[in-house]
Amino acid sequence: MGTGKTSAMIQKMNLEPDKNYLFVTPYIDEIERIIAANASGNFKQPEYHGKFHTKLDDLHNLLASGENIAMTHALFLLANKQTERLILEGDYVLILDEALDVLHSYNEDMIRNQRKIMDEDDPDLLLTNKFIEVDEQYNVHWIKESTGKSNHHFSEIRRLSNREMLRYINGSFYWEYPPDIFQWFSKIYILTYMFENTVLDCYFKTYGLQYVKVSAEKSDGSFRLCDFTDAAEQKEKFSSLINIYDGKYNELGAKRNAFSINWLRQCKPEKLEEIRKAMRNYKNSINAPTDSVMWTTTKQFGINSKLEKAGGFKFTHILTQEEKNLPPREQKKLLQFVPCNARATNEYRNRTTLMYMLNYYMLPDYEQYFKARGYDLNLEKISLSVLIQWIWRSAIRDGKPINLFLPSSRMRRILCEWLGKPVF
Questions:
Q1: CA-CA to 249 of 20 to 30 Å: which in 30, 295, 353, 419?
Q2: What's the pTM?
């Protein structure tokens, strides 16, 4: 949350050159920052050398050589038994920048990886015909060589169960990152905010993985790790920097479910036009230049594209032909749409006009999964955490005031209660 945690960890790594570190972050620019800031200059990042020497292969070479490594979440999620063995042999410390996505519904994972999704009757077919077994910990075990269907149809089920990454709960399959890998590190630091009651927190508790919360504080001009504090005074400071809109355009989100994904999906064209008009009018009412804007909604059902489609759209930058030739990463910095799950990036720290056109709810699958395992997720805290992470991509991370249009009455209440502001 822009509280100096990464800077504090960089300082810690520089003061402990004899330790082996694996720094895992969502974004390439953070990898470059870690490499540039390391005093000893010995941080490496895995590189792709063709299909016969992938980034995972290069990661294994770097681990075998005992190098300090900075890498992405995406590569870390590809870890296998060889990765685990090399981590253990190298006595590595893990620094996880932002919470890792350790759980997906099976079909969600297949869609992400453009693979075959599960038919509705497939779980029952596999169980009743004894092609798989499910143990008391919900782990799926493949026990037969043939299913009667093409091997390709169930190849992912078989692969994931063999890698101990597949769970079965209440009629549904889930992909889950194998917890064993976390047991091979000598120590783990997770650089995030509002960690408790999140998916990763419940995952750690499920598997008995211990952690200690710490904070970062500024001392003599630099950040360092210190005992955990809730930093109420810091929250009060941030509260004074957020000007939440209180006006007639909030009527759009008066209902509790307004701006949820299902509510947005059912919006007719005239309702979407009403939302667009409110966004334009809000921007104009505070005389905000377009390049000061960041806004978000869901990408599901093409809602973001529908909101951007209207003629007279005034709250996004249209790329020039020259800008279209820039690398994708540079183009992204010029756009106003910032995904609602954006984390650990500084690319939007010049934005002072924020429009959060979403009422965030965690997918019910996650709630069902952890409830079966004995944990109740705090859904409002999760919604708040996602919202705060998004807000902290903006200029507020540099201590600058921001304007926020948050029409969802539910999200506005959650944020105001956390900030200690009157709820309206």
A1: 419
A2: 0.83
Residue carrying structure tokens 């709810």: 361
Beta carbons within 10 angstroms of residue 68's beta carbon: 22
% of the chain beyond a pLDDT of 90: 39
R_g of the chain, CA atoms, integer Å = 23
The sheet with strand 166-169 has its strands ordered as 103-105, 172-176, 166-169
Cβ partners under 8 Å of residue 156, min gap 6: 110, 115, 116
Strand partners, 227: 214
Q: How far apart, in Å, are the Cα atoms of 301 and each of 261, 262, 336?
A: 9, 10, 20
Which residues in 213-227 are b (16+ Cβ under 10 Å) and which e?
ebbbbeeeeebbbee
pLDDT at 73 over 80: yes
Cα–Cα distance measured from residue 219 to residue 377, given in angstroms and rounded to the nearest whole number: 36
Q: What is the pLDDT of residue 196?
A: 77
What are the structure tokens assigned to 21, written together? Answer: 């570190």
Query: Would you state the pLDDT for residue 314?
Result: 52
Chain centroid to Cα 140, Å, comes to 26
pLDDT at 3: 62
Token pair recorded at residue 337: 């749409």
Q: Predicted confidence band at 115 (pLDDT cuts at 50, 70, 90)?
A: low
Number of H helices, E strands in the chain: 19, 16
Q: How far apart are CA 245 and CA 249, in angstroms?
A: 9
User: What long-range pairs does 175-181 form, CB within 8 A, spacing at least 24?
Assistant: 175/103, 175/104, 175/105, 175/106, 175/108, 175/109, 176/102, 176/103, 176/203, 177/77, 177/100, 177/102, 177/103, 177/203, 179/203, 179/206, 179/207, 179/209, 180/84, 181/79, 181/83, 181/84, 181/87
Residue 200 — very low, low, confident or very high, per pLDDT cuts 50/70/90? confident
The residue among 310 and 296 whose pLDDT is bigger is 296
**AA letter at 36:** A
pLDDT > 70 fraction of the chain, expressed in percent and rounded: 91
Query: Residue 127: is its pLDDT beyond 80?
Result: yes
409 near 225, Cβ under 8 Å? no
CB crowding 380-391: b at 16 or more within 10 Å, else e = bebbbbbbbbbb
Q: What is the mean pLDDT of residues 260-270?
A: 94
